[in-house]
Structure to design on (272 residues):
């Protein structure tokens, strides 16, 4: 693997993996504590409509997918903030619509043989300098937002009703968290694809919850775990000539299930 570091595409993959690990560590923590995992899955699959638009009209993939996902997210936020009972229906509709639109646009693109696997399961080795720039801008924006609104986001995440009584604009922060999630999902698609993106956003958080007592520490520890999983996944992918996205998620899953088994056996030991 060391000789591979001389290749620019490997260097880009490692940089992208680190940046996305930090992003997903922060945003994944917000998604989990706000119980938005299923909602984020809907946004992730809806994003395929943006991919279809970028292919059909020849637009930059990240730009068009980001804009499309933001629009879908705003619609979801407007329709579900007060009527959470409609959440499953709205997510199902946007999920199906986005995927269908994307597939049809790809089919209608003249002479285009789409490599759908790279969008469904990621292609971290195809990351370029523009993608890395987008990741840096997004990470900077996320950190700036957290520094500015951390207390309000913390209040909304753990007790939105109490936060509302305190005068916190809960609708604004609900929408803001969704928008940050949408942009993070779009950039994560490049790494692990549509199918696996939610695993990247939740598995490191699931593990970090066992070691953390605060949201801030959870974000840091989740980002650290995500970095380890991403780098290990890249090493396995390179050495065995496997797809990078699934390799990263399988490494993450292995660690998660190892912790589950260890806790299970430890509980049995205590009972005995």
């Amino acid at each position: 693997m060391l000789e591979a570091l001389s290749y620019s595409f490997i260097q880009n993959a490692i940089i992208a993996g680190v940046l996305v690990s930090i992003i997903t560590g922060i945003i994944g923590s917000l998604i989990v504590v706000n119980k938005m995992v299923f909602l984020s899955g809907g946004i992730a699959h809806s994003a395929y409509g943006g991919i279809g638009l970028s292919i059909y009209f020849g637009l930059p993939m990240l730009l068009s997918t980001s804009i499309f996902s933001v629009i879908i997210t705003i619609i979801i936020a407007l329709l579900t903030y007060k009527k959470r009972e409609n959440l499953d229906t709205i997510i199902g509709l946007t999920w199906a619509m986005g995927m269908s639109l994307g597939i049809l646009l790809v089919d209608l693109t003249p002479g285009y043989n789409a490599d759908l696997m790279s969008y469904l399961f990621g292609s971290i080795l195809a990351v370029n300098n523009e993608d890395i720039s987008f990741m840096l801008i997004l990470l900077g924006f996320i950190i700036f937002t957290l520094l500015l609104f951390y207390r309000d986001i913390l209040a909304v995440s753990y007790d939105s009703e109490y936060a509302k009584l305190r005068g916190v604009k809960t609708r604004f922060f609900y929408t803001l968290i969704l928008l940050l999630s949408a942009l993070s999902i779009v950039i994560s698609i490049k790494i692990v694809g549509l199918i696996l993106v939610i695993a990247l956003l939740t598995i490191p958080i699931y593990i970090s919850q066992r070691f953390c007592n605060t949201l801030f520490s959870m974000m840091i520890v989740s980002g650290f775990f995500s970095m380890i999983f991403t780098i290990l996944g890249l090493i396995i992918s390179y050495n065995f000539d496997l797809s990078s996205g699934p390799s990263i998620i399988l490494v993450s899953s292995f660690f998660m299930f190892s912790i589950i088994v260890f806790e299970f056996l430890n509980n049995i030991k205590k009972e005995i």
In short: The chain has one domain: 2-271. The radius of gyration is 19 Å. The mean pLDDT is 87. DSSP finds eleven helices and no strands in the chain.
